[in-house]
Description:
Strands 6-7-8-3-9-10 form a six-stranded mixed β-sheet. It has a four-stranded antiparallel β-sheet with strand order 2-1-4-5, with helices on one face. It is built from eight helices and ten strands. The longest helix has 18 residues, at 191-208. The chain is an alpha/beta fold. The protein has one domain (36-241): Rossmann fold (3-Layer(aba) Sandwich), CATH 3.40.50. The chain has helices at 3-6, 10-13, 61-68, 91-101, 117-127, 132-145, 161-173, 191-208, and strands spanning 19-28, 35-45, 50-54, 76-81, 84-85, 102-105, 179-183, 211-215, 227-232, 235-241.
Amino acid sequence: MTMHALVPSPDATRATPAVTARGVDKSFGAGAARNHVLKAIDIAIHPGELTLIMGPSGCGKSTLLAVLSGLLRPDAGSVEVLGTALWDLDDDGLDAFRLAHCGFVFQGFNLFGALTALEQVMLPLNYAGVTGRAAVEQAYAALCDVGLGPQAGLRPSELSGGQKQRVAVARAFVKDPALVFADEPTSALDKENGQVVVGLLHRAARERGATVLCVTHDPRLVAHADRLLRMEDGRITADGPAPAAPSGHSPY
Ligand SMILES: Nc1ncnc2c1ncn2[C@@H]1O[C@H](COP(=O)(O)OP(=O)(O)OP(=O)(O)O)[C@@H](O)[C@H]1O
């Protein structure tokens, strides 16, 4: 027996993928204006890992995230998430699936102007049937996790950009979802708050076994990730372990 056979490959020790995409294609527009954004993408994303998607502006990162998370229907290909063929579901089925399993942090944060931070974070709990005192306590705890306990009663117009981003992060994490899809979750954050959000992403994957897929331009995230996918012009051009930070150097 060779030494080789004694050492399992990293793939052999990984759990079944939580997200598997095959031949995913997506274009916007038609005719001469057609923009071919995703080009026959095959990818498997694993639970217990923080996976980053990086690449130049406009290469298709957010579009890929939307297709993998049930927000945008591809033109061709299949996406299986937690054993469910996502794009075989009808709209109600997709809504129910996302509600049950997914947490989202969007660019722009998608907060409701009339709701306080606490009410924004309570929303996914209420949809899941958690109401009253239990919902208040869970939502408040999630806000405290991102350092926003004192701002629980404020509305978006009274919050800074970074505070709004942290409300969106608390809302994504409050239900302990099996899957977290995050688009630029640290873009508005300073060093200290960036560290808080990176810690949440990291812990969700490592401690809860969540599948965390994150689009980012932020090089500070790389040292905390398990895997780095690079995209260019609608394709995955590199896929491997995220490089560790040089010793003694923390990007945060
Ligand atoms: N709803 C849409 N309708 C038409 N074109 C779109 C739509 N969404 C995205 N696109 C186009 O698809 C391409 C990829 O956009 P996408 O947002 O996926 O890129 P990205 O890599 O996430 O960019 P960035 O890093 O700047 O956020 C761009 O050319 C964009 O203009």
